[in-house]
Give the backbone structure.
Amino acid sequence: MYTADLFAQERLGQRDAIGPCAWVLRGFALPYVDELLPALGRLEAASPFRHMVTPGGFTMSVALTNCGALGWASDRRGYRYTSTDPDNGQRWPAMPGVFARLAAEAAAAAGFMGFEPDACLVNRYAPGSRLSLHQDKDERDYDAPIVSVSLGMTATFLFGGHARSDKTAKIPLYHGDVAVWGGEDRLRYHGVLPLKGPSHPLMGEQRVNFTFRKAG
Ligand code: MD6
Ligand code: FE
């Protein structure tokens, strides 16, 4: 296992409750990193990261790709899940086994048994990339949790309430952290502050986030 810093091992096993049904499992993904990165490389070769346009006409600062039966996509017409990559017309790459295993094990560790995601959105942040406050509400099944894996540079996650104007908590997400949320927290507003800070020893000047959902 590669650990980014001396503190990574100490965080492993910590569990921070960030809501009644939302947790950050510190370092939970660290034992998977050696398998996740080559799988990400293969996925990226088939469906490269790209900057999508929002319905409002802005180009997202975050680059994204997908794997699994369904992938999240945005264009001028709206947000939706698609079974094919709009850039090449092919199906999104299959969900690598190690991705599905990590997602199911993290969900189970947070009390959500039998999580079988059909969609994995992969976000890539460069310094300055941000994600404005949003709700994840394009999925059909709100009963399933969302599992979110952070790799690379540390991000500041904003975790708000059920109204956009609600106060937000700032939560640092480190390399290897896994956030799991569901139940009454499933539709809370959240976002990511502009990425900044030191480069990551393994991943360099970027942060990669995998978000697993049951979308269909
Ligand atoms: C990110 N994550 O961490 C963006 N959504 O890069 C999300 O938008 C997100 O982390 C729902 C649940 C967990 C998340
Ligand atoms: Fe989200």
In short: The first strand starts at residue 15 and ends at 19. The chain has a mean pLDDT of 95.
